Amino acid sequence: RPMASFPNVSRILLKSAMRNAAATSALQQDMAATFLRFYLNVTAASGSGGLQVVLRGYDKVSGKAVELTQAVASVTTTGTWVWEVNSSNVPSNPFGSVKQVDCRSIPYQWDAIVKHLDSSSYTYSLSVEISS
Fold first, then answer.
1. For 42-70, how does the pLDDT look when each residue is reduced to its tens digit (9 = 90+)?
2. For the stretch 44-83, what's the b/e string if a residue is b when 16 or more beta carbons lie within 10 angstroms of its beta carbon?
3. pTM, two decimal places
4. At 69, is the secondary structure helix, strand, or coil?
5. Rg of the chain over CA atoms, in angstroms?
6. 7 pLDDT more than 70
């Protein structure tokens, strides 16, 4: 019997706003997610340190967030940039606007944090596509 298929979902995690410090999305819950594609849309960039997107999971006992992806790539210019996380264990090389690809299981509860590598202002939004 074939497994049930779940529709793809898109969500806005952070609405467009000017920020000069890390911003965290609301807690998300997805029972069967196997792939996340984060879109960071930077419309104003004044710094040289850049921005990074990190997936976090949550410890059930303490409720504390734990970083699950290592922030490697950063962006310092305007544009729409992509970070991908998949549970296929088949890595692919980032290219074009894809800044980073991580192979990790997607936790049931997660959020995303946009890290600022300097204290200058950036205007951006963050959205996600979720596949099962």
1. 999 987 889 999 999 999 999 999 999 98
2. ebeeeebbbbbbbbbeeeeeebeebbebebbbbeeeebbb
3. 0.90
4. coil
5. 15
6. no
